[in-house]
Amino acid sequence: MTVREQRLDDEAPVALAIDMIRCDGHGICAWLFPDRITLDRWGFPLVDRSPVAHEDRNRAMRAVRACPRAALIANTVPAARTGATVQP
Ligand code: SF4
Asked: Which residue of 19, 24, 31, 46 sits with most ligand 1 atoms within 8 Å of its CB, as the best mutation to test the pocket?
Protein backbone atom coordinates (compact mmCIF):
# COMPACT_ATOMS: atom_id res chain seq x y z
CA MET A 1 0.00 0.00 0.00
CA THR A 2 1.39 3.37 -0.95
CA VAL A 3 1.19 6.30 1.37
CA ARG A 4 -1.40 7.79 -0.95
CA GLU A 5 -3.67 4.80 -0.44
CA GLN A 6 -3.63 5.01 3.33
CA ARG A 7 -7.01 5.93 4.72
CA LEU A 8 -6.90 9.29 6.37
CA ASP A 9 -9.44 10.35 8.92
CA ASP A 10 -11.67 12.83 7.08
CA GLU A 11 -11.21 15.36 9.84
CA ALA A 12 -7.50 14.82 10.51
CA PRO A 13 -5.32 17.83 9.71
CA VAL A 14 -2.87 17.13 6.90
CA ALA A 15 0.36 18.55 5.56
CA LEU A 16 1.55 17.95 2.01
CA ALA A 17 4.88 16.53 0.95
CA ILE A 18 6.43 15.41 -2.34
CA ASP A 19 8.35 12.23 -3.04
CA MET A 20 10.79 13.78 -5.51
CA ILE A 21 12.03 10.35 -6.59
CA ARG A 22 8.56 9.56 -7.96
CA CYS A 23 7.63 13.04 -9.20
CA ASP A 24 7.79 13.53 -12.96
CA GLY A 25 6.94 17.22 -12.90
CA HIS A 26 3.53 16.90 -14.55
CA GLY A 27 2.37 19.95 -12.62
CA ILE A 28 -1.19 18.73 -12.11
CA CYS A 29 -0.86 19.27 -8.37
CA ALA A 30 0.02 22.95 -8.80
CA TRP A 31 -2.86 23.41 -11.21
CA LEU A 32 -5.32 21.89 -8.72
CA PHE A 33 -3.97 23.53 -5.55
CA PRO A 34 -2.05 26.66 -6.54
CA ASP A 35 -2.46 28.24 -3.10
CA ARG A 36 0.01 25.74 -1.65
CA ILE A 37 1.89 24.26 -4.60
CA THR A 38 3.92 26.22 -7.15
CA LEU A 39 6.31 25.03 -9.82
CA ASP A 40 9.99 25.79 -10.10
CA ARG A 41 11.56 26.85 -13.40
CA TRP A 42 11.87 23.20 -14.49
CA GLY A 43 8.22 22.44 -13.73
CA PHE A 44 8.78 20.56 -10.50
CA PRO A 45 6.56 21.33 -7.52
CA LEU A 46 7.47 23.44 -4.52
CA VAL A 47 5.13 22.62 -1.65
CA ASP A 48 4.21 24.61 1.40
CA ARG A 49 4.70 21.92 4.06
CA SER A 50 2.81 23.65 6.85
CA PRO A 51 -0.55 22.13 7.90
CA VAL A 52 -3.34 22.69 5.39
CA ALA A 53 -6.23 24.80 6.65
CA HIS A 54 -9.36 22.75 7.30
CA GLU A 55 -11.32 24.61 4.63
CA ASP A 56 -8.64 23.73 2.03
CA ARG A 57 -8.40 20.06 2.96
CA ASN A 58 -10.68 18.79 0.17
CA ARG A 59 -8.67 20.63 -2.48
CA ALA A 60 -5.45 19.24 -1.04
CA MET A 61 -6.78 15.68 -1.09
CA ARG A 62 -8.07 16.15 -4.64
CA ALA A 63 -4.54 17.09 -5.73
CA VAL A 64 -3.13 14.05 -3.90
CA ARG A 65 -5.55 11.71 -5.66
CA ALA A 66 -4.88 13.30 -9.06
CA CYS A 67 -1.10 12.88 -8.98
CA PRO A 68 -0.34 10.31 -11.70
CA ARG A 69 2.86 9.20 -9.97
CA ALA A 70 1.53 8.99 -6.41
CA ALA A 71 4.27 11.45 -5.55
CA LEU A 72 2.11 13.98 -3.73
CA ILE A 73 1.57 12.79 -0.19
CA ALA A 74 -0.78 13.93 2.57
CA ASN A 75 0.56 13.20 6.01
CA THR A 76 -1.62 13.54 9.05
CA VAL A 77 -0.47 16.22 11.43
CA PRO A 78 -0.66 15.91 15.21
CA ALA A 79 -3.18 18.35 16.63
CA ALA A 80 -0.42 19.95 18.68
CA ARG A 81 1.27 21.18 15.49
CA THR A 82 -1.89 22.78 14.16
CA GLY A 83 -2.80 24.56 17.36
CA ALA A 84 -6.15 22.75 17.36
CA THR A 85 -7.59 21.51 20.61
CA VAL A 86 -8.53 17.85 20.92
CA GLN A 87 -11.88 17.08 22.46
CA PRO A 88 -11.94 14.11 24.88
S1 SF4 B 1 1.15 15.93 -9.97
FE2 SF4 B 1 2.53 14.47 -8.96
S3 SF4 B 1 4.06 13.95 -10.51
FE4 SF4 B 1 3.04 15.82 -11.17
S5 SF4 B 1 4.31 17.54 -10.39
FE6 SF4 B 1 2.71 17.11 -8.86
S7 SF4 B 1 3.66 15.66 -7.41
FE8 SF4 B 1 4.91 15.63 -9.30
From this structure: 24
Q: Report the number of secondary-structure helices (H) and strands (E) in the chain.
A: 3, 4
* Distance from the alpha carbon of residue 12 to the mean position of ligand 1, in angstroms: 23
For 13-28, give the DSSP string: -EEEEE-TTT-----H
Q: What is the pLDDT of residue 7?
A: 61
Contact 13, 69 (CB under 8 A): no
Q: Against a cut of 0.90, is the pTM above it?
A: no
What confidence tens digit (pLDDT) does each residue in 36-58 have? 999 999 999 999 999 999 999 99
Q: Which domains does the chain have, with CATH numbers?
A: 25-80 (3.30.70.20)
pLDDT at 71: 97
